[in-house]
Amino acid sequence: MHKFNLYEEHKHYFTPEIIALVTKIYQYKGRQDLFIETRENEIECFKSSARKMSTVSSNRISGITTADSWIDDLIDGQRDPKNINEEEITGYHKVLSSILQNYDYIPCKPYYILQLHRDLYCFCRTKNGGQYKSFDRRPKGSFRFVKSSDTERAMDDLFDSYDSAFERKGTEPLILIPMMLLDFLCIHPFSDATYRISRLLAVLNCCKHGFFPVKYTSLELVMEKHKEDFNEAFIDSVEGWHENDSNYEPFINWFLSVLTEAYETFEDRVEHLRHNEKTKPQMIEDHIRSSGGKITKKEILGCFPDISEITVERTLHDLCEKGKIKKQGASRATFYIKCS
Questions:
Q1: Most distant pair of Cα atoms in the chain: their distance
Q2: DSSP annotation of 238
Q3: How far apart are CA 88 and CA 59, in angstroms?
């Protein structure tokens, strides 16, 4: 069985490529801390949009979707879930919101991970959470997950090792977090929702160590964008895992690249605030002009979470009336293109 010794293992991954990514992230973190200190009230508006995007993306990665028109009502409690997908989407948003509000008080320990899994299904009428898997399954490919009979012990060993690593000098959380996530996925403790829980654990541990773009932009959205890279990194990293001869480096690089992109998105949004001398319609028009191709209302709302849907709709209508853009498609397939 795999032996968990994260502190000693993580020393092997201070490679030039990883150190370059870690250094870049800490540079972003320094600017992030300044943004939060000086513009906390202004960037507060990013949070609800980020939670919504994270909820949609994380569930969509796992094949759980519903009509876009229902998402806001589900998340705001204006619509009761009508099917299993909507129940799970609503549960994810609840758990994510709890993590983002209470991360300082949430221990990264197996008993609480079971609680998070239970809460993920708090709206479900046909599924129950909060229990480890009771049968064994194989993923695509040849890698075998930890047996169900060994799951509880493996989870205890993993998080004991993870906790003890942070009690030692020279610990680098940006290396330890993805190592823990990979081990968690190799254990695959749940029959359902292991991957969604792993994304929630990524958010939780980033917050615990002060990497806050996950509060203001969607880490899960970036993960969805790079899900093929995730699959490749996972396969490359798990070979030899059961024999304690695996290479975590591809997975660490993937995770750090995702976090770096989340920081870049965060800084882009802060940059918009720096130019708030422009009117909101001007900001929307400039964004459309720089978009290069077609753009949707949903994409504009994602880029400007502080601008209301009514303002975006009014601006798009005005730009169409002035002949600056053209409306194409209909209903949910509507998009806009610049006029030459």
A1: 68
A2: H
A3: 8
Closest among 14, 201, 39 to 107, alpha carbons compared: 201
Closest CA to 165 of 151, 152, 179: 179
Alpha-carbon dihedral sign for residues 101, 102, 108, 110: negative
User: Which residue type occupies 218?
Assistant: S
Classify 60 as helix, strand or coil. helix
Q: Which domains does the chain have, with CATH numbers?
A: 6-273 (1.10.3290.10), 277-338 (1.10.10.10)
SS3 190: coil
Query: Is there a contact between 173 and 93 (Cβ–Cβ < 8 Å)?
Result: no
Global pTM value: 0.83
Tokens of 123: 């709206």
Pull the structure tokens for residue 224. Answer: 């969805």
Residue with tokens 């990293």: 237
The model's pLDDT over 289-316, given as tens digits with 9 standing for 90+, comes to: 766 667 888 888 877 777 888 899 999 9
Asked if 287 and 304 count as a contact pair (C-beta separation under 8 A), the reply is: yes
Residue type, 205: N
